Amino acid sequence: MVVCPICVQVARIFLVPGTSLFPILASFWKGGDGCYVNGCDPVCEVPLLSPSSTVTFATSCWENDWRTILLKPGYLEWLQIGHHCFPFQERLLVINNVKEVETVQAAARAKVQQGILTRVVVAQDILGHFQLKREDWNDWQYYNALGPLTAIFEAQGKYLLYVTGDVYLKKPVRWIPQAIRFMQKHPQCKVANLSWNDRYEEVKKESYSRSWNFALSREGFSDQMFLVRTGDFKAPIYGEVREDASHFPRGDVFEKRVFSTMKNRGWERITFMWGSYTHENI
Question: By residue range, what is the domain housing residue 23?
């Protein structure tokens, strides 16, 4: 069995101390000269990225989904993290708007002890960092924004992959190295994501151009999944709201603000055409 370096790093996430990597690696194997996670050839693409191209994985939980994320076997470690086939620098969970914080923290600490998560934070009011005011948001808008904004504020990687708690991958997709390299070559491309719910034709219709791997769009943003350069989104860019962003429901939400900022600055979005995430409202 030939195993690429990324598979070894992904496997270590799930390694129980005192046990062997081999059974985990064997579960990745598809036979021949490749491995299941890499899905291509035994030469991993991650080393082609600059060592400074570190990536934080982050998700957030709230009262209605924390049990799925933290208690459902395999959901966080495989469907949310492992299936991206990437050695994240850190794996961060934001606890946001739950009834019993201590109970959720205990479940999250268990994931840290298992090596699935590296860090857990409880969402705090960090609007001031982004030059935003609490009175500009109703309660739903506030907590909806607090998850991704806290992840952005806390992320230590040069890049951040954020997914909501109800987003997962049914099967492995190796896409992050390609997305980062594309964004490095095309500075106007600031956001990357997988296709959504297998709606590839919808992705094509929303694009103005396509490369081999990506559909390019001058409009569109979803908080369900976004891969961004952390520094771009740590800036105070969320105070802009455009009139042509009225298609976003529930008022001036986080998504609407990012959409407006991207339009105002000529930022573009790239969508990977060879893999999809699944979003299910929980």
Answer: 1-44
